[in-house]
Write a structure and sequence with these properties.
This protein is about 60% helix and about 5% strand. By secondary structure, the chain is of the alpha/beta class. It folds into two domains: about 375 residues, no CATH class; about 100 residues. It has a five-stranded mixed β-sheet with strand order 2-1-3-5-4. Helix 20 links the parallel strand 1 and strand 2. Helix 9 runs parallel beside helix 11 and helix 15 packs antiparallel against helix 16. The longest helix is centred in the first third of the chain and has 26 residues. The chain is globular.
Length: about 475
């Protein structure tokens, strides 16, 4: 008895330690990088100085996702001020809460020792850590989906002859609708739940009244909401291409887990476990088979849609697929009766994950100077401020049809930097530089590529050039 208590206390302390480390990884140096291009658009949309309706209009022309996330950020900006870190702190908090929600989800599915492995996998996942430090919707999507699944599995544990709506079904409806209002791809999760409800009725003659009532309410909401959303937004990103052959060898697992080796290890273990427990999942229709439906349709639906219409699949759009991946690996590993195989899988996952973490900036920044990965606008603007010429323009040729959106979003962001850093510089449009003999020209090198290498105009002369991690800065003289 005393040994069990000691083991329980050790597991508890270890759990808290892993969660704490996961939270530190999400928070440390959260403000190190300047905003990324997509973050700049979110920052522009959530400007607290404009009305909610104007923010909504900006969202419709500048985003491919619903307004909910930017609306929440706008509220936070009204409370805490208009700085880039407010949105990033929100993502950090939500991502940290997701660690707890995934642990709770695992305990609902099966209350065994698998919670320790799932704590490790979700806390140390490099993909989740990355998006915990971005002013983007994806951490919120992951959290809402995890909460949806929590109350979904709680409904399945209720009496099948229960009343039509219960407390669990109420929360299930709320979080599923919030998921849909965060990102349209979360309809894949909802479709998977509908599929399970149909199969369990067809093959097991089992009816979950509260689940079916909840599904009906959510379908009703979706029927009215989805056409309105599609008519008022431009949801197809132009930069996405069809998956190449390499994609089908790892299904983004290399991106989800940080390296090709680690991704393939997780993928092979997952395939082995699903095959090993195929009877439990597909014949007995255990509720956790819903996670496999989510996993399958998260790839199948966007790929099929892409070939029929336009490519739409990107790793971050299906960030919620990490929920079934992590949960199934943890749960099914601890269902194995073969102790050696179980221990080997646990050792392999933990060893490779820790090894990979030491190759990532997330860990390396504790031991050596961190190098920036995103454009360094602040340094570039400070360099302009130190010079004798205080006028600059931005090359936005990459923006194509959304040129005016980027112009407004970049101008807004740069103005906020100028105010915060108290710089004496002036941002003007390129076409308004006719009266300037000298000016600085900022080019976004990773988007404009070769355009930054040369200015195709005989009236310009480059006097100086500097590069700050994909921020190309040129001092230009206008020739007569």
């Amino acid at each position: 008895m005393l040994k069990k208590i000691k083991n329980y206390n050790l597991a508890l302390y270890l759990s808290f330690l892993i969660i704490f480390i996961g939270i530190i990884f999400r928070f440390y140096n959260i403000d190190f990088e300047n905003l990324w291009f997509d973050e700049i658009v979110s920052y522009w949309i959530s400007d607290p100085k404009i009305s909610i309706f104007e923010s909504y209009q900006r969202n419709n022309i500048g985003e491919g996702t619903p307004f909910l996330f930017n609306f929440l950020i706008k509220i936070l900006h009204n409370i805490f001020g208009y700085t880039q870190n407010v949105g990033r702190y929100f993502s950090f908090v939500i991502s940290s809460l997701s660690i707890l929600s995934i642990i709770y989800l695992a305990k609902i599915i099966k209350n065994n020792n698998s919670f320790l492995l799932i704590i490790f996998l979700v806390s140390m996942n490099i993909f989740l850590i990355k998006y915990a430090q971005e002013l983007r919707v994806y951490s919120l999507v992951f959290f809402f989906c995890s909460m949806t699944l929590i109350f979904y599995f709680k409904i399945l544990k209720e009496n099948t002859n229960n009343k039509y709506l219960s407390k669990n079904s109420f929360y299930f409806i709320i979080f599923q609708i919030l998921s849909i209002l965060s990102h349209p791809f979360t309809l894949i999760l909802f479709g998977s739940i509908i599929l399970y409800a149909l199969l369990i009725k067809l093959f097991k003659n089992k009816i979950y009244k509260s689940l079916n009532a909840s599904i009906f309410i959510i379908i009703t909401f979706t029927v009215f909401y989805l056409p309105y959303y599609l008519l008022n937004t431009d949801p197809y990103p132009t930069w996405i291409s069809h998956p190449d052959l390499k994609f089908y060898t790892n299904f983004y697992f290399s991106k989800f887990f940080g390296s090709r080796l680690l991704g393939i290890a997780h993928l092979l273990i997952l395939f082995f476990l699903i095959f090993k427990f195929k009877k439990k999942l597909f014949i007995d229709l255990e509720p956790s088979v819903t996670l496999i439906f989510i996993l399958f349709f998260s790839y199948f639906v966007p790929i099929a849609f892409g070939y029929l219409y336009e490519p739409i699949l990107a790793p971050r759009y299906i960030i919620f697929v990490l929920i079934p991946i992590i949960t199934l690996i943890s749960y099914l590993t601890f269902e194995l009766n073969e102790k050696k195989i179980k221990n080997f899988f646990i050792f392999l996952i933990v060893f490779l994950t820790l090894g990979n973490l030491f190759t990532e900036t997330t860990v390396q920044q504790f031991f050596k100077q961190r190098l920036p990965h995103k454009p360094q606008y602040v340094i570039a603007l400070k360099e302009i401020n130190k010079s004798n010429y205080n006028t600059f323009a931005i090359n936005l040729s990459f923006a194509n049809k959304n040129h005016y959106i980027w112009d407004m979003a970049m101008n807004n962001y740069f103005n906020q930097i100028i105010i915060k850093e108290k710089l004496n510089i002036n941002h003007v449009k390129f076409e308004d530089l006719k009266n300037q003999s000298y000016f600085w020209y900022i080019c976004l090198a990773d988007l404009n590529t070769s355009i930054c290498d040369v200015i195709n105009n005989s009236k310009f002369k480059i006097l100086d050039e500097k590069n700050y991690n994909n921020t190309n800065l040129k001092l230009i003289k206008l020739l007569n």
